[in-house]
Task: structure prediction
Amino acid sequence: MKAVEFIEVTRKFGNFKANDEISFDIKSNDVHCILGENGAGKSTLMNILFGIIKKDSGKMKIFGEEKDFKSPLDAIKNGIGMVHQHFMLIEDFTVLENVILGNEITLKTGIDFKRSELILNELVEKYSLGLDVNARISELSIGQQQKVEILKLLFRESDILIFDEPTAVLSPVETDRFFKIIGTFKNDGKTIIFITHKLNEVKYISDRVSVLRKGKLVYESDNADKDLNIPELSRAIVGELSEISNPVKRAAEINTSDAVVLENINLVLNELNVLNGLDLKLKKGEIHGICGVEGNGQSGIVDVIYGIEKNFTGSFKKYIEGGISLVPDDRKRKGFIKEYNIGENISLKGKNLNYLPEKRINEISGKIISENDIRVSDIESPMGDLSGGNQQKVIFARESDSENYVIVLVHPTRGVDINASAFIHGRILKLRNEGKAVLVISSDLDELILLSDRLSVLYKGKILKTFARKDFSGYIKEENEVELTADPDFLQSIGKLMTGITDE
Ligand SMILES: Nc1ncnc2c1ncn2[C@@H]1O[C@H](COP(=O)(O)OP(=O)(O)OP(=O)(O)O)[C@@H](O)[C@H]1O
Ligand SMILES: [Mg+2]
Result:
């Protein structure tokens, strides 16, 4: 049975076709992956399915019946649920309040807080979500916020579940857990639509894939037998394979004098030891990677180094003049102003750029757009209208194109497609080759292994161990390769450390 049929679905923004006569089916009870470059039109299509935006032409059928949703509420009533790329949560509300908001339809008796709390707690338990349903959203990390969104779907008992890049924000351990949840959904007979840029995940989890490029459907393949042809799939995503290019190589070790030194840093927030005797050294000409399960002090490190947090004990020394560049963990909250266009968002961080004339701002946008291959329908589009990956590319471009010598990057390639990811990795290596001190905090171990000169494991607010590049570089097939294979033993030992197991 077909759960969803897209028939020549088209959606334009101005003259730009974000979706161009897209036709394909999604089978009931399948895990169906949708892939494509940043700006390919994936979120747009899903937003049409979920009733957030309207198509200009074409048809959509849900379980064989033609539908045209007027609003998300309309879609929800028809059994569709969506976890957005950018979460749709009210910061000042609690988990409970967010989940039941607009969902009174599922409770025939009206809003019954007690009963809702009971149901929610059962769901939290059953799916091991580890959430306090009375916590406020503003206190939650991105990973936890996602769980709130999943809780919404569970609560509404939706049949068709759309996940727009759910794993971009998750660590490997959390991704495993998430896939278990998907497995349960599938056992329950639900249909799952899953957007991701990570091809190994696609092969592992999907039954079928569809690829969009520049608004068109360009490729489809079955994967029920887990035999997806990955090279063919990558070609379909990027078009010409030659488009993947990353000429930047790691230069031999250069000046590695100290840039920033943190010694015995303790930071207590909300009675939690966020940092607990943390020692960390950033050196010039080095990429220092940090891996760890989210919530082990990553944000504390950033806040101390970036100067947002002053209430710590221990010593923080900076041996280099100038400011600090930061790509933050949560781009929507901390990275940009969504009503401002690209140039305005870039000039926000610049020197003496407060009163730039519009023409100059558009020049800046034009340069950044072409140098960084940012896909945007209109140069003056507000940042909020850009696709997620393109927003990330703008923020990275702004932060890396500066005179600052200390660069802090949190999930630098979050939500970014394969090509752009290779491009950003090249830029990070270039910064290092120029002698800058680069801190990369990421949930993507492959990325950290590819980039790091030194790689530290963070656990409970402290560095458990730091590996030198020679400890793991032997396992990399070739520098700068898109898909690299690190030694499984090394990955295992680092995975253990991330959960606090030290063996000794
Ligand atoms: N509200 C809008 N106004 C103008 N242009 C828009 C709007 N929404 C999306 N677009 C444009 O449509 C194109 C497709 O965007 P979409 O968000 O669907 O991409 P995507 O495939 O989800 O990319 P990503 O992988 O980066 O999330 C982009 O070029 C984007 O700039
Ligand atoms: Mg998207």
